[in-house]
């Protein structure tokens, strides 16, 4: 547990030093929220912005973060202290849960001030979404299995996908059916037995695939060997 805590503290210090995660995961959705303000009349209208923040935190902060540290050769220091890959990823996930919490907190405060929404209700639903979307953090660990791409390449592709998904917020059509943010935002609307079964099955698959990738995670840079 002490190792997880040490990794967690180190990760939080790294986040506080870097401005890009805040700009991308917090400031950008707030800008889009204000730009699409005419559509915000209810707390549940924020779920798309919550899903952007949460998915960004999990994908960039867990999967891509692990790829970046490996390709920069920083993991030798990490694992010279402790060899447990599980503790390393647990700390990363806890870090991103914390970051996602403060990001949605900021967005909810802005929405409350500007659109007079119920702050406590928005925090309640956004916290539920953070928990329900947790399997995505495990799914993102699959990115560490990519053998032929550098971190910059993978990061660029994922960034483009996220940005386009956010741009499609108010659009309808066939392209939006492929929008990952749309499916994540709909987790709060799960109600039927079929929806629950699909969610449970998908979550199990995501988590198991993530655990498998953790076991296979390579500490040494793939591109430098």
From TrEMBL:
The chain crosses the membrane at residues 47-67, 88-114, 120-141, 153-176, 196-214. Keywords: Membrane, Transmembrane, Transmembrane helix. It comes from the Bacteria. This is Uncharacterized protein. It comes from Alkalicoccobacillus plakortidis.
């Amino acid at each position: 547990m002490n190792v997880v805590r040490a990794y967690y503290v180190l990760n939080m210090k790294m986040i506080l030093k870097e401005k890009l995660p805040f700009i991308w995961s917090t400031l950008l959705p707030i800008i889009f929220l204000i730009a699409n303000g005419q559509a915000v009349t209810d707390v549940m209208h924020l779920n798309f912005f919550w899903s952007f923040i949460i998915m960004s935190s999990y994908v960039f902060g867990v999967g891509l973060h692990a790829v970046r540290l490996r390709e920069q050769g920083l993991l030798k220091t990490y694992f010279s202290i402790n060899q447990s890959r599980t503790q390393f990823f647990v700390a990363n996930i806890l870090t991103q849960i914390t970051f996602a919490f403060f990001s949605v907190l900021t967005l909810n405060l802005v929405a409350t001030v500007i659109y007079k929404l119920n702050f406590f209700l928005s925090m309640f639903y956004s916290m539920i979404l953070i928990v329900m979307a947790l399997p995505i953090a495990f799914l993102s660990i699959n990115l560490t299995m990519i053998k032929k791409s550098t971190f910059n390449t993978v990061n660029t592709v994922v960034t483009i996908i996220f940005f386009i998904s956010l741009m499609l917020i108010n659009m309808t059509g066939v392209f939006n059916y492929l929008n990952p943010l749309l499916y994540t935002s709909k987790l709060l609307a799960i109600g039927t037995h079929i929806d629950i079964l699909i969610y449970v099955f998908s979550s199990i698959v995501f988590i198991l695939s993530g655990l498998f990738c953790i076991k296979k995670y390579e500490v040494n840079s793939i591109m430098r060997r």
